[in-house]
Amino acid sequence: MLRGDRGTATVWAAGAIASLMVVVGLLLSLGSVIETRHRATSAADLAALAAAGRAGAGPVAACERARSVAVRMAVRLVGCRFERWDALVEVEADVPGLPGVCSAHARAGPVARRAAAAESHGPTWIEDGRSPSRAERSAPAVR
């Protein structure tokens, strides 16, 4: 029937196309997971900020506000609790087209607490908006 290498280019081309399709599929799946992880992280941050903003109304009202933000961001609020005035929030998001979930957690507290801490322990933020370096944090506060 066939003599020599006749038709092998077709087989190699089909194999190369199949391999390329697998790589593209893997890259699309990876992109979907990364996007979901970013969405979960952003939702956790926003939910924690929302809960911290309502901390004065009590933990139930604050966590309900965090749940509302999580629903708008298309994630599930898994946990919401308070440690003193800090809101600790955990969320999960389903990865579209793949089994599994991405989870994220965040912590937020009231700004007034930071200002009080700065008065008693020195500055927590440098005037230009950046965080202080280790050397700046370990240096004794000048009074």
From TrEMBL:
Residues of the region (Disordered) are 118-143
Lineage, uppermost ranks = Bacteria, Bacillati, Actinomycetota, Actinomycetes, Pseudonocardiales
Q: Is-annotated flag, keyword Transmembrane helix?
A: yes
Q: Which NCBIfam families match?
A: tadE_like_DECH
Q: Does the keyword Iron apply?
A: no
Domain named Putative Flp pilus-assembly TadG-like N-terminal is located at: 7-53
Q: Where are the transmembrane segments?
A: 12-34
Species, as recorded:
Amycolatopsis alkalitolerans
Q: What is this protein called?
A: Putative Flp pilus-assembly TadG-like N-terminal domain-containing protein
Instruction: Give the compositionally biased regions (Basic and acidic residues).
Output: 127-137
